[in-house]
Amino acid sequence: MSDQPKTRLYVDSPLAEGQAVGLDHERAHFLRHVLRLDKGDAVAVFNGKDGEWLAEIDGFGKGWCSLTVTAQRRVQADGPDLWLLFAPIKRGRIDFVAEKATEMGVSRLWPVFTRRTDPNRVNTDRLRANAIEAAEQSERLTVPELSDPVPLEKALAGWPEGRTLYLCAEAGNVRPIADAVRETGRGPAAFLIGPEGGFAQSELDEICKLPSVVPVGLGPRILRADTAVVAALACWQALSGDWTAEGGDTRPPFRSPADPAGPAV
């Protein structure tokens, strides 16, 4: 068996040396018929708790695949304590939000309904599937928690003390996001991104009464909601997140100066 994994999968099973892992029909089909893998090929697996492991394909059956975990590649490490609260937007673009927020290291995805939110339903199974796929491809060791959609008022009720909530607003008194993030520093944080058309003024007034809220601006242009997500999270990561971890390696895993591309998984 080659030690180089052919792909990377999120699994629900416990992971330890010698552990057997069963894959469902969809994953079995992907390995066998899309990637053309066979018995003895190696894949990387992670579950958000036990780190990342190498596993060997034991075999395929009708609608199933079995793996045996062989060796640990990376110990578990959690990412930044960063939440994203966002008003749901139309399918396709909400998929983009889940994908890019996961790549940006968000630890919790939380759809919230505002007064101008359209649509008023969220396919949480689809969102989770997009988050899992993004976690697999981005080589993070966790999948973001996906909270049930709730009205914005309910999400903000009893907001945890010590968690800064950056309100991305295109109107009202705001600070440049870079200045605000530098001043508040590291620590638990969250971003609130509104719907297409923005927040109602009465909503902004109520949100800004909360002691943990810091209204921020994202520049002189109106950004679409999905663009605002990427812009805000990138600013926070560059100034206060794990892109700037002291003493840490800011490259993806298994990359080095001598091998900048690294192995493809």
Describe the structure.
- With 265 residues, the protein is an alpha/beta fold.
- It folds into 2 domains: 8-74, Ribosomal Protein L25, Chain P, CATH 2.40.240.20; 82-244, 3-Layer(aba) Sandwich (Alpha/beta knot).
- The protein has helices at residues 25-34, 93-103, 124-138, 152-156, 177-184, 201-207, 225-240; strands at residues 8-10, 20-23, 42-46, 52-61, 64-74, 82-86, 108-113, 145-146, 150-151, 164-168, 175-176, 189-193, 213-217.
- The strands form 2 sheets. Strands 6, 7, 8, 9, 10, 11, 12 and 13 form an 8-stranded parallel sheet that branches. It has a 5-stranded mixed sheet with strand order 1-3-4-5-2.
- A hairpin with a 2-residue loop joins strand 4 (52-61) and strand 5 (64-74).
Features:
single chain, 265 residues, alpha/beta, Ribosomal Protein L25, Chain P, Alpha/beta knot, 2 domains, 5-stranded mixed sheet, 25% strand
SSE blueprint:
Layout lengths: L7 E3 L9 E4 L1 H10 L7 E5 L5 E10 L2 E11 L7 E5 L6 H11 L4 E6 L10 H15 L6 E2 L3 E2 H5 L7 E5 L6 E2 H8 L4 E5 L7 H7 L5 E5 L7 H16 L25
Parallel strand pairs: 1-3, 6-7, 6-12, 7-8, 7-9, 10-12, 10-13, 11-13
Antiparallel strand pairs: 2-5, 3-4, 4-5
Helix pairs in contact: 2-3, 2-7, 5-7
Task: Give the low-confidence spans.
Answer: none
**Strand percentage, roughly?**
15-25%
Q: What is the molecular shape? A: elongated
Mean pLDDT across residues: 90
Question: What is the β-strand count?
Answer: 13
Provide a concise account of the structure shown.
Helices cover 27% and strands 25% of the residues.
